[in-house]
Amino acid sequence: MKEIENILGIHNVKYNEPMSNHTTFKVGGPAEIYVEIDSITKLEKVIEICKKAQIKINIIGNGSNLLVSDDGVKGIVIRYIANEVNINKKNGKVVCSAGVLNSVLAQELFENELSGFEFAASIPGTIGGATYMNAGAFGEEIKNIVDYVKYIDIEKAQLDILQKEELEFSYRKSIFQKMKVVIVEVGMQFIKGDKQIIADKMNEYKKIRIEKQPLELRNAGSTFKRGEDFISAKIIDDAGLKGYTIGGAQVSTKHSGFIVNTGNATAKDILQLIDYVKKVVYEKYGKILETEIIYLK
User: Which of 61, 178, 242, 253 is the least crowded, having the fewest Cβ atoms under 10 Å away?
Assistant: First the structure.
């Protein structure tokens, strides 16, 4: 579209862009239009154009918790990539653009001797995506550090802000999953820490991930949420599903809570395997598995 090209530059608007290039699963058909936007002003203008033209708007982060249909995505796919980090070392307050990678933020906080984000240092993805999903690990969650979130409400086409108490955080959930938004900025609070202790924690958590998770294969993180009264990986193990394969998709032999792409998986393979695992677990144990990953089509 000429209007969007005029705002972002013709070389920054991609048509029929393979979404396999933009997900950690490395699967997914083409997006009709794909753009990466680095400022709130440009983002607001593009959203306004798309709304007027009745183009479907799809928002993604780093693609690390995402499965895209083999048939691709209708409309426009927008990835917000602004990556500014402003740190007040004295009071521990941090303002972070939503496009900042968790690993980058963790390193910045380490350099400034601020603690509280070590658990997320090795979580793939951006702070925007982590906030949207209330990402967590090692007994900690994003909700414990967020002060406020600034976002664009796509339906209203306006910039807005919610304070911590309004965000409705719960296990892998936030209020944003009930809304059509682009998170653009996250305000957080951290505490003073010792650099060596921070480094030791991050290294320990990284080591555990390498040992226990199938990082050597393409995946989208934990496929299944933890159950209220059961551990998903264990119940999948107990059902005899570890290593079960459909096409190029496999229940990880390293961690049954992950479905991995062994090399040539399609989105259809992954979806069929997810459904099969859910079916077997329910039939054997009467437990309902919920997925963490977002499906885009």
Answer: 178
